[in-house]
Design brief:
Blueprint: H1 9-12, E1 16-20, H2 22-26, H3 31-34, E2 35-39, H4 40-47, H5 52-68, E3 74-76, E4 80-83, H6 93-104, E5 125-126, E6 136-141, E7 147-152, H7 168-181, E8 187-193
Parallel strand pairs: 1-3, 4-5
Antiparallel strand pairs: 1-2, 4-6, 6-7, 7-8
Length: 195
């Protein structure tokens, strides 16, 4: 049991995504409302727990942003459409897509309908998407057309040999910590279309 790894909330805070929210900027909101950072800790709090799926949703989002906004690595809310091959109720799809919505401002039916044709967030997220491999998530920059598929496999994270005899909560935390030590070992991306 001494070999189990763990991670603190302070360490979760070190994993950051930078967001630009053009709708808030249009509404003349304070800069902190349209230029801000979302941490993995924010995602954990939003989800209500830390687990491989929530950590994965954050890491997938981070990778998609780097691929689709390579010059700045800043996510422009409302500029990314997301396709998911599974249904909203399959496995952790719903919770994962909630994190995507929080970060990208991409929603299925419950998103903002727009203001005079701008800042539309409704319809930017699609479930049961055809042409996307199971286990992958497709992200498309609506402005550039660049599209990337990103997959995530937390099953590769090593767990202790005696994991079956240990409390699952401790093993769970160990797995999260292992994934965050080397995120690139669990994330794969494939450019579908670049312009």
């Amino acid at each position: 049991m001494n070999n189990l790894k763990t991670i603190s909330s302070a360490e979760f805070e070190k994993f950051i995504i930078t967001i630009h929210e053009p709708f808030a900027e249009f509404l003349m909101a304070d800069q902190d409302e349209h230029e801000f950072k979302i941490s993995l800790l924010d995602v954990v709090r939003f989800a209500g727990h830390a687990c491989p799926a929530m950590v994965g949703a954050f890491l997938i989002s981070q990778k998609a942003i780097k691929e689709l906004f390579p010059e700045t690595s800043v996510c422009i809310r409302g500029q990314v459409a997301i396709e998911i091959p599974s249904s909203v109720t399959q496995g952790a799809t719903g919770p994962i897509s909630n994190v995507f919505s929080m970060i990208f401002g991409a929603w299925e039916r419950s998103g903002f309908g727009g203001l005079q044709g701008q800042f539309v967030r409704r319809g930017l997220l699609k479930y049961d998407a055809q042409g996307v491999a199971q286990g992958a998530f497709r992200f498309r920059n609506l402005k550039t057309g660049n599209t990337v598929d990103i997959s995530y496999d937390p099953s590769k994270a090593q767990v202790p040999d005696d994991a079956a005899s240990l409390p699952f909560q401790k093993v769970w935390r160990h797995k999260i910590t292992t994934i965050l030590e080397n995120p690139n070992d669990y994330i794969n991306s494939c450019s579908v279309n670049s312009k």
